[in-house]
Each structure stands twice: as C-alpha cells, then as structure tokens.
Amino acid sequence: MSEPQHPRTLSEKIWDAHVVPSSLQEAARGEAVEGIDPEEAAAILAQRPDLLYIDLHLVHEVTSPQAFEGLRLAGRKVRRADLTLATVDHNVPTADRDKSNPDPLSAQQIEVMQANAKEFDVPLYDIFDIRQGVVHIIGPEQGYTQPGLTIVCGDSHTSTHGAMGALAFGIGTSEVEHVLATQTLPQAKPKTMSVEVTGELGPGVTAKDVILTIIAEIGVDGGVGHVIEYRGEAIRSLSMAGRLTVCNMSIEAGARAGLIAPDETTFEYLEGRPHAPRGDDWDEAVEHWRTLVTDDGATFDRSIVLNGAAIVPFVTWGTNPGQGAPVNGRVPDPGGFATPALQESARRALEYMDIEAGTAIRDIAVDRVFLGSCTNGRIEDLRAAAAIVEGKQVADTVQAMVVPGSGLVKMQAEDEGLDVIFRDAGFDWRDPGCSMCLGMNPDILLPGERSASTSNRNFEGRQGPGGRTHLVSPEMAAAAAIAGHFVDVRELL
Amino acid sequence: MKKVEKVTGHAIPLNRANVDTDQIIPAKHLKRIERTGYGPFAFESWREDPDFVLNDPAYGGAKLLISRHNFGSGSSREHAVWAVEGLGVEALIAPSFADIFKNNCMKVGILTVELPEEDVDYLMARSEELPDAGIEVDLQAQTVRTTDGSWERPFEISPFARWRLLNGFDDIGMTLAYDTDIEAFERQRPNRLPVTTAD
Questions:
Q1: How many Cβ pairs closer than 8 A exist between chain A and B?
Q2: Which of A117, A141, A128 is nearest to A60 (CA)?
Q3: Domain containing B19: what range?
Q4: Which of A336, A468, B14, B33 could form a disulfide with B67 if both were Cys (CB 3.0 to 4.6 A apart)?
C-alpha cells in the first residue's frame, strides 16, 4: 500500500490502516455470485463499503447470545478467539453474588455467555474473576485498549475506547456475529468532526461537565455519521479517566465514535498494564503511536470550538442527554427552543420528569444517587466523589450506592479505604457491573423516583420504569447525596 | 436473509423526535436469548398511555412507521429492530436515523427511508388523518409513493445496500469470499498487537 500524500485526520489514518485490500479484480469476483449477471455484480461490488479489520472484539452477555447461535446454525467458528474478550456486566447482581441469582432470565443469559465462551474458546472474565467488570472499564484497565487499534463491541458505549486513540464503535448483534465469523466488518467510511475545547477548565469542573456541555451545544444528533475528534488545551489537560468519560458519551451526541490523539498521558497510563507491549515492543509501539495525530492541514467535515473556561458543573433536566443546564441555572421554558420539534420534546420531557419550567436546578431534590457505570466507574471517579463525601452523611431522604467499574477498581478503592468513607457516609458499597445505569439487574429506580446519576442516559425509564434521571459528574452526585438536592460543587471546594 | 423489494401498506405516525431504542424495547426484555418474540414489548411504556398511536386499532397491521429525526438513537441493541419487525413493520420513514440503528435495520432487512422534513410532515399528517392511507416503498425504483398515485418522492440508498437487500444476500457469506485477502492482511499485522489468550 502506498501512503496517501494528502494530510489526514487521525480517524482517517486508523481507518486506512485497517482496510483489507482486495486482491481480486471485482469482475472475477462477480462471476462467483450465483444467479447474478457477472458484469452487474462486478459493478456493484466495486461500490461495496470498505472491509475493516477489527483488532479487538469485546463481547458481553446481552448482545451476543443470538450471534453465537447464528454461528452455530451456519456451522461457523469464531475466526480469532485470540482477538476476542468476553465478560458479564449488564445483568450481574451487585450484591449477594454468592447466593443464587434472583432473576432466572438474567441467570440464564449469564450461563449462556459462559457456555458460548467455552464452546467457541473465547476468553471470559467471569462473574467471580477479579478482572470482571463493565466491558469499557476493563479494556483500558487491562491494557488491551491501545492507540491505533480498531475496537468493536455490541454496545454503543464502545466509543469510550477512543480516548486512548483507538477507533472504537458500537455494533448490533448481526455485526457481532459478522466479526466473530470474519474478524472484519463492511463499513461505510464515517465523516470527521473536530470538537475543540480551548482554555483551562475551572476548579470543580470535570470531564463529565465538558461532554454534557458539548452535547447540549451540538444536540443529541449533532454527531450522526461522524467520528468526533476532541482537541484543544482543555481536552489535553484531562487525565486518562476524564478522557474516557468524554469519549464514552460521544454516542449521546449521535457520533459513530469519539477520538483523542494519544500523548504522554496515554503512554503513562498504558505502560506496565498487563496487556500493554513490553521491552522493545513498547518502544516500537510508542514510536508508532506518536504518529497517530491529525496532520497539520488536514480538514474535518465539520468543526466546532468551545471555550473551556466558560464550562460549569452541568445537570440534565430532561429525557435526553442534550437537555441539560448549568447547576446555577434554571430549567428552561420549552417555548424558548428553536424548532417545534425541540419545543415538543422539551414539553414532553418536563412532563415525564415532573419539573416546572423555571425551577432552579439547585431546588431539584433527589431520592437516589448512583455512582458508577462505564462513564464514571473508574478509580479516579470514586476518589473524587469520596473527597466530597468524607466525614459527611448522606441525607435522610436519599438512598445512595457506589458500584465500582470492575473488580480491580473495587479492590484498589478498598486498598485506599474509599469503601470505608462511602460506607461511613451511608452509601451502599457494591460489586462491579452496569447496575443502575440501565436497570437490567435488581438495581432500579421505582416509578416516580428521582436520581442523580453518574451514568450516560436519562431516557424515559432508563433506570427503571417511571424513574427520573439527572446526569451529573461524580463530584456533583456525591454532593447531591449529602445535601438531598443539587448543589454547586464548586462551593464545597 | 429474506429478499426485500416493495413494502406496501398503511403507516403508524409516531410523531416524536429522537425516539431512543430504550423506548422501542426496554432493557428488561433484553434478557431473552431468542431472536424473535419482541413485538409484544415494543414501545411498552408508551403503550401504557391509551392515547398512544399504537393503541389505536386503526393502525393495526401497519407495514410502515413514520417518525421524526434521529430515530433509533441511544443503545446499540438490535432487539429494537427485532421489536419493530415483531410489530409487522417492514419499512421506516424519518428525516434521519441513528447510525447503529440504521446499520442494524440493514442487516435485518428493514428499510430505513430518509426523506426531507417537509415530505415527512406531509406523510405524517396524512397518516394521522387517514389511518388506512396507503404508502408504497419501492426499493427497485428507489421511490416512496402514496398508493393513490398522487404523490411520489425518490429516496437514496447506497447501490451496494440496495443490491444486497433486493437479492437477500447473506453478509457474512459475502465477506467470506474475501477470506484470502483477510488472511493476507493478518500476516502483515505486527506481532506486538494485543491478544486476549496470552494468559
């Protein structure tokens, strides 16, 4: 392959490096398509989407059973079990794991994952494995997620891994089957979008506030069809954990993927992790990773710039992640939105959320607090929340829980005594999993209950039928747990 | 995969924007390991409202569904497409669809027809007013028309996707025809790339 001469974006570089070149003339291939005129077939095949090689395929119990069943029915095998990693995260209980699962359907799905992993030789971080956890926490944690890789998973939050400079996107179950069988995916090349956040974030302003602000700005479909590359000083200064939070929610802006070019922060995070390269391989890898930047002069299909210094702690008030406001602001009047569709959407949201327009965000009281998920279930998130909670008590009106992102995050937190801080304050300290982010296990909101949640979606019923979700940073969730309502965390610093 | 050529019938007007896949199929129904049987749970929460459009018997048996922009946003769950399929719906019309949802529809053989906002306005209003008003999506001709012949619009679809749907070709089978190319690609991958079977 000859190197294209024109300047390229990071997304294009990773894409180009993973397109499987076709050795045969399409005409010859066309003849192989039964019942079709070879010339027509050749012309059509020449327009097929790129066949993209997948370096890492992450699998979990919810979106894979039908894919493995498809393989079985067609007599196919997993082509590269050694590039595939499975875990159980969506369904697993976060308490009393040693007892039998209270939900027979969940138990069955976990058993099916175990059986499929065994039958197809796919490595599995099973429920009692210390490495088990939310699939998007464990990839980076184990050092599997590396710059320049293509990563897919039957889960929309696969965009998380882009924070380390990997091109990572969510796929459906048919595509899971396709990757299992071929280790490739035919994919239309996405457009590119630059989101630059300039300047320095203020104290108490987190990666979560940055991404919620971006989504409010560009809308929940602002990134559709695009890979977003996050750039600028405010992004560069984020820790690896913060970058993972930003890229995680790219899908909430509708983006195909989120990306941040790897740099010293990335290399420092990766070095020494169990599956990161070692020795000469490490040096060779870092040398390659340093080339994974958008070239000077490369153009994006779309670009926006935000002032990082103007971003403040953010709280969603509606039923999509773009419906949010600064903590010191008020719930907006639906009539003030630009289009009838946005107005109607806001009206419906306020009705579902049972909030009046004009309510001060700080006056919104919460019943439940959820700290965890692939968005904010990392050790850094727990440390930040614990710093707010330490020595204080969860409000009498609030029930609060911490669900570490993985077994290793939980262990690390316990080594640091964070579990004691949380428990002393009145939080439940749970086992790792997706938990109340999507309510597939017993951790759900009751109808009408209102949560402050560090997760990624505030859709109607997301955390349980009739439940009402406000998305916030770990610091803001911790502060809300103590006060019983939203507070500006900057006043506690 | 089944062949898709034409979808003809009346349409459910789901007049909402950003319909997310959590609404199309709530997470609690994703615990099933089957590929079919999701239709009864489609839009389960919204169906609790007696005025919700799917509760109107006039829209029973509809083959099409019309909605607003960014339909199918959020979770990648293909169960959402299986739920739509379970309702008997074979084609969706909206100004835009979420990427993963659209890909999933393509794999299952559900047509996603993107039309300009004003055309969607027209069809939405028409189906709201006249529940049995017929619409035909013709994949061969790449047109959407009202069955009374009064209105017709072209729609875009990639030639490759159209061809695949018209012929009902199995995606995996087609990719396996490139097996030697995939092998050649694998031979030049650096050895330092991570493998999951190392320990």
A1: 212
A2: A117
A3: 6-168
A4: B14
